[in-house]
Specification:
heterodimer; A: 769 residues; mainly alpha; Four Helix Bundle (Hemerythrin (Met), subunit A); B: elongated; NUOK/Mnh_C1-like (chain B); Na+/H+ antiporter subunit C (chain B); transmembrane helix (chain B)
Chain lengths: 769, 118
């Protein structure tokens, strides 16, 4: 399983060097990856449906409790099959959809990365590992959503999606760590045994809150739903993949996964039902007023996610069965509808449903796929969607709640009516009616584009004919994993009871809504106002504040003036050093250690300070250079007085050389100009003086400490005996630390080369020597 | 004497900092040189200053017969002086190049419009 998860990561890495090869006919190689993974996971179906599960454990960071623990059970398997199965369809489709696109290879790199991140999320048995992959899905989806990176809207949507899901991820991490600390384990299979401990812990509501935030942001639940419609800026294959089967279902997966561990309490049930219920109704109504095909699909996706959240919140046996079936139902028809939309967009250049119509005449196979998917989404009998809808009603009808139960039922029916109409709008509307003139010359795209949606749509139909075997093979194990015990699920084509009546009524009402409701831009504007109750504005405002802050910060600290950088660095250093001095306590002076200076030493220092004053104040460049050399010679004299003949000689030579160089090279330059005002000069003077004082105090402090003479004595004793030299300083430089000196010589040679080439360089033809 | 040197190095640092806060490129370079000199004195002082006893072994002896000045700070400073000369020489020539190109000694004139747009 480790290899299955990591294969996508490896392939996406390989795409970096070899990607350009894949833009040619070799691109079919890419589709091998999801297809083979799909077959790999299919091979587990018999065993899983028989009730077993598979574990794999590989140590990664055992000391932190982070290990490669993978578990394949019914829930993981359903998701893994969706990720790889729909992934295969998407890979085929995108190959053609993006043919000739400049960043073709990059796209598939992101897609592989995303796929393995999703597989990692659903297969991880370690909550920290799950979190790592969870974040990886956020990051890779950021790249996918913002794939058209020359479009500012697209970039903005990607950023919104990343910040919303990233924020949720942050809370999720907090929740997971709390959970792991309380239970003493980070392994999901072991967390189930600690259920009682966790439920009775006082932090249990907090953990749930954090977990819900993570799931709601990822699965676009109200009030965090707004990133999903924005994410429709992505290329259509991405929308199809992210929003039908994978990314947004990660939150649902999380809830389903933790349902047996944390679920079954009021803290769990009511928030999920409330948020899920509100989201599904809100988004379902919203979807009716969209005129952009992808907009309709986005909102109906949010609505479907709401239904799933709601069902998991309901938590009854029927609800869990319904959820496990509906995940599959929704993935099949939603992926189809997205892919169909992609074809329409690709061929006609528009996604506006008021402009589209009659496309069945030119895009027949596509229209079959679209209509089948729409029927499945509407829940027409003999489609898998019908089974899904049936089970949802079954779940809302059989609850322990009295009046609340009826409300839930009403909400579910209203939502489904909206979804029926929305499904018709997206899957049927573009294909019926008269064909506008400008679309008459449209031709069917390559097979690789229309076959994947057709297969998915037909699957939705076939599953509806044989719900029993499909349920037994796939969904039963899923429901058991979510429910935590045996669900005795058995799917039938239909039951003759009130549920069937409700289903048919929903279908009729939805069809009615479809015919009555005529979406238009003005209605869209009106319904958009509803969105203002969502915290989208707060998010936007917050994002703007961050932008403003960073702009202000950049202007303040990176204004492009060297002296201002110096100023800040020095001020900061002063504060730090002063603090360090302050906490190191008072300085005690040993007056015995101080030697009395002779009068010529004082004379030298007075000259030095005078020269220093001249360097700082003189307006003449030449004067300052001369004064500078005076300082150098004075320092040279100090070295002479205090037993450092080598230093004195070096300083003398170097100082002379520098002065000569200065004068030779810079004599032509004008005198200093003084732009700066008095106030700034004083400010700089104060900062400079305080820096000097601090350094002096530090020097005093260090000097008052005793020095160890061990090393000095070692060199003194061994200079002649080991290195046969009597001048110890020289011996250190050329013998004991000979390699250092060699590299110093190298540095000087490089500087000399630089000097030479700079002198010879002529950038302008008019330049003189 | 030590106290005088401590005051002196404080002044060298202060003057160096003051100079690198100026707009002129030459002053910037002078400031860096002053900071270097200040640091040399600092190391020299902290190694303990000794009068009239250079770390050179007598001609007839194999090891020191008497106390001697610490050779390590001296070795360090010697390296520092030489390296700072490399820096100074390079910077002086660079300044000349810059002056030849932009005809100014003002650091602010080096901020090209492209950079300001960022």
């Amino acid at each position: 399983m480790l290899l299955a998860v990591l294969s996508g990561l490896i392939i996406s890495l390989l795409i970096i060097p070899f990607g350009k090869l894949l833009t040619t006919k070799w691109s079919f190689l890419l589709t091998i990856l999801p297809a083979s993974l799909f077959l790999y996971f299919m091979s587990y179906v018999p065993a899983i449906s028989a009730g077993s599960s598979f574990l794999q454990h590989i140590n990664w960071i055992p000391s932190l409790g982070v290990d490669f623990d993978f578990k394949l059970d019914g829930l993981s398997l359903l998701f893994a099959l969706l990720i790889t199965g729909i992934g295969t369809a998407i890979f085929f489709y995108a190959r053609t959809y993006l043919k000739g696109y400049i960043f073709f290879d990059r796209f598939f790199g992101y897609l592989c990365l995303f796929m393995s991140a999703m597989l990692g999320v659903v297969l991880s048995d370690n909550i920290l590992l799950l979190f790592v992959f969870w974040e990886l899905t956020s990051i890779s989806s950021f790249f996918l959503i913002g794939f058209n990176n020359d479009n500012s809207d697209s970039r903005k949507s990607a950023l919104t999606a990343l910040s919303v899901t990233g924020l949720g991820g942050f809370f999720l991490l907090a929740g997971l760590i709390l959970l792991g600390n309380i239970a003493g384990t980070y392994t999901i299979s072991e967390l189930i045994d600690a259920r009682e401990l966790i439920l009775n812990h006082e932090l249990y509501p907090l953990i749930l809150g954090f977990l819900f935030l993570g799931a709601f942001t990822k699965s676009a639940q109200f009030p965090f739903h707004f990133w999903l419609p924005g994410a429709m800026k992505a290329p259509t294959p991405v929308s199809a993949y992210l929003h039908s089967a994978t990314m947004v279902k990660a939150g649902i997966y999380l809830l389903a996964r933790f349902s047996p561990i944390l679920g079954g309490t009021d803290y769990w049930n009511y928030p999920l039902m409330a948020v899920g219920g509100f989201t599904m109704l809100f988004a379902s109504i919203h979807s009716l007023f969209r005129i952009d095909l992808k907009g309709i699909l986005a909102y109906s996706t949010i609505s479907a996610l709401g239904i799933l959240t709601f069902l998991i919140g309901l938590g009854t046996r029927e609800a869990i069965i319904a959820a496990s079936v509906f995940i599959l139902v929704h993935a099949l028809y939603k992926a189809t509808l997205f892919l169909v939309t992609g074809i329409i967009d690709h061929e006609t250049g528009t996604r506006d449903i008021t402009a589209l119509g009659g496309l069945r005449k030119v895009l027949l196979p596509v229209s079959i796929a679209g209509i089948l998917a729409a029927l499945s989404s509407a829940g027409l009998p003999l489609t898998y969607g019908f089974i899904g809808k049936d089970l949802i009603y079954e779940a809302t009808l059989h609850t322990d709640y009295q009046t609340l139960g009826w409300i839930l039922n009403a909400v579910a029916i209203a939502t489904n009516i909206g979804l029926v109409a929305a499904g018709f709008m997206a899957g049927i509307k573009p294909f019926v009616g008269t064909l506008p003139k400008q679309f008459e010359n449209i031709h069917l795209p390559y097979k690789s584009m229309w076959i994947p949606p057709l297969i998915l749509a037909i699957l939705g139909l076939v599953f509806g004919w044989f719900p029993g075997p499909v349920g037994d093979f796939i969904n039963h194990a899923t429901a058991n994993a979510v429910y935590g015990s045996e669900t005795d699920m058995y799917l039938k084509i239909w039951h003759l009871n009130i549920v069937l009546i409700l289903s048919v009524a929903t279908l009729l009402a939805g069809t009615l809504v479809y015919f009555v409701n005529k979406p238009s831009p003005s209605k869209l504007k009106a319904i958009e106002k509803l969105n203002s109750i969502a915290p989208q504005r707060i998010f936007r405002g917050y994002a703007n504040d961050i932008m403003r802050f960073s702009r202000w910060y950049t202007d303040l600290f990176h204004n492009g003036y060297l002296r201002s950088y110096h100023l800040k660095i020095i001020l900061f250093a002063e504060l730090l050093l002063a603090y360090k001095l302050w906490i190191s306590g008072p300085i005690t002076l040993d007056l015995e250690k101080i030697t009395t200076p002779s009068f010529y030493e004082i004379g030298v220092i007075v000259i030095l300070i005078g020269a220093l004053y001249i360097v700082v104040t003189t307006p003449s460049r030449l004067t300052s250079v001369v004064a500078m050399s005076v300082i150098g010679y004075c320092i040279c004299l100090i070295f002479v007085f205090y037993s450092a003949p080598d230093l004195a000689m070096t300083q003398f030579t170097i100082d002379t050389l520098s002065t000569v160089l200065f004068v030779l090279v810079l004599y032509k330059l004008p005198s200093f100009i003084n732009h700066t005002g008095k106030a700034i000069l004083y400010r700089d003077g104060i900062i400079a003086l305080s820096f000097g004082v601090i350094i002096s105090l530090i020097a005093l402090r260090v000097w008052s400490e005793p020095i160890s003479e061990e090393i000095a004595n070692f060199y003194g004793e061994n200079a002649y005996i080991l290195a046969k030299g009597k001048n110890v300083v020289n011996v250190i430089l050329v013998d004991f630390r000979g390699i250092d000196t060699m590299f110093e010589t190298v540095v000087l040679s490089i500087a000399a080369l630089g000097v030479y080439s700079l002198i010879r360089l002529r950038l302008k033809s008019t330049e003189k020597e | 004497m030590e106290l005088l040197l401590i005051i002196l190095l404080g002044l060298l640092y202060a003057a160096g900092v003051y100079m690198i806060l100026r707009r002129s490129m030459v002053k910037l370079l002078l400031g860096i040189m002053l900071l270097g000199s200040g640091t040399n004195i600092l190391i020299f002082l902290l190694g303990g200053i000794t009068k009239g006893k250079p770390p050179v072994i007598d001609e007839n002896a194999k090891i020191f017969q008497d106390a001697f000045a610490d050779p390590i700070p001296q070795a360090l400073i010697l390296t520092a002086i030489v390296i700072s000369f490399g820096l100074t020489a390079f910077a002086i020539v660079l300044l000349k190049r810059v002056y030849a190109l932009v005809n100014s000694d003002d650091l602010d004139d080096l901020n090209t419009p492209e950079e300001e747009d960022i």
